Amino acid sequence: MSAEPSDVREELGPEGELNGTGESEAGQFGALLPETRRALLRRLAVGQAEGRAPSLTGAVIRDGKVAWTASRSGSGSGGGAAGGVEVQYRIGSITKTFVAVLVLRLRDEGLLTLDDPLGKHVPGSAAPEVTVAQLLSHSSGLAAEARGPWWERTPGSLRQESGDLFEGDPRRLPAGRRFHYSNPGYALLGSLVERLRGGQPWGEVLRREVLEPLGMIRTTLRPQVPYADGWAVHPWADVLLPEPAQDTGLMSPAGQLWSTVEDLGRWAAFLVRGDDRVLSAATLAEMRAPSVPPEGTAWDGGFGLGFQLVRWNGRLLFGHTGSMPGFLASLWIDVAEDVAGVVLANCTSGPAVSAVAADLAGIVADREPRIPEPWSPLAGPLDEELLALTGPWYWGAHPYALRLGAARALEISLLSGPGGRASRFRAEADGTWTGLDGYFAGERLRVVRSEDGSVSHLDVGTFVFTRGPYEPAGPVPGGVDAKGWRGR
Questions:
Q1: CA distances from 188 to 75, 169, 283, 314, 442 (A)
Q2: 357 neighbors 58 (Cβ within 8 angstroms)
Q3: Calpha distance 376→249 (Å, rounded)
Q4: Which of 34, 53, 275, 391 could bond to 351 as cystine, CB 3.0-4.6 Å?
Q5: Strands 308-312 and 315-324
Q6: What is d(CA 288, CA 308) in angstroms, rounded to the nearest whole number?
Q7: What is the separation, in whole angstroms, between the first and last Cα of the chain?
Q8: Per-residue model confidence as pLDDT tens digits over 104-141
Q9: What are residue 95's phi and psi, to 5 degrees?
Q10: Mean pLDDT, to the nearest integer, of 405-423?
Q11: What pLDDT, on the 0 to 100 scale, is given for residue 350?
Q12: Which pLDDT does position 308 carry in this prediction?
């Protein structure tokens, strides 16, 4: 099989549109520059050639729209070996991000909590004591793989019941202590979805509640033409061997889905922005927060609630990788730059799809960095009392600033000196605020008033903020020296 390309397609289309051919164009600031497109095409071509992939198809999503797509196939890679932006590939464990969204929908509807043990909702489960959050974040300690023959290459009929997933004790590590990837853990989450949706198959729930609202008509449990055949490439010769594409049955929530780069572009846009028909942006932000301790001596990767987290060339990315016999897939999203890279390949091993996808996003972020949205004043009537709270506050002698944002949101940050406990806060109906990140994540901010109704201080999780540094008359825990501040 020659490494010379016979099929190289870079596809662009009308501004802001997504259409069924995979042609697309970035939205807010028009097309990518020619130099950027060439760099993207070269990175994809290098990935296909060096990885010896029958086909490699990629996409970049910018500002919530597919900005660039291309497909690269080797000479002689006809029929099912060839790829294309309209062609379905198996996406493997990227499937898990869809399952996680279904579970968080159940949480947001009040049908479960993340701390619930699985056995509360799925009686007779092989691991009733592990929690929903532990399953989502791969901290359940359950076995990495299903029992029996290699589940990805054998029929799902071999594992028809939950008890068929494990052999003996399913636990490999204490629950909640560390990250340990578990494919059967996501099979259990699929069963959870089915149980709480009245016995409906999880794939049908996914189609109705997620895929159709987002317009992802080319994402399916079983392949639909046109789709790529899966291949193994011989390690020492340029020859191919077809791989089976089994219906994995009970294990399908771990990696069954087929999709296209265009559909995964829609998925990436949703994962950043949310869609109230499916899941809010706030819940998606919660899902991409680290949920388990990092492995190793340096933090270069982690896991949230269904999402992988990585640092790549100084950027923080989230998304997921995937592999099934005959297929490799990767989706990485840079929220700060609002750009994502998708790469799909139809071979079992070889191409570094994770690196290529991350590099596609990085090429755009480096060459055409995001232009921020224009500043504009807050909408709606102004709350004068809330505005009066803004400005400098002091925790002891540390100077902080309190700022007001949209929807009555507050942000507190240190004005000088190292460290500090900066956090953003969401307004609650009871007149308090809840911390969203940083040291005060989950803590409450309260405005404490004096008997005459004037503002005395801010209480943030017992941290007292006053209008002056260590005010003698202020409610400083432990009191303030009666002689006050003094010189030498």
A1: 43, 15, 22, 35, 29
A2: yes
A3: 52
A4: 53
A5: antiparallel
A6: 8
A7: 83
A8: 999 999 999 999 999 999 998 889 999 999 999 999 99
A9: -50, -35
A10: 90
A11: 94
A12: 96
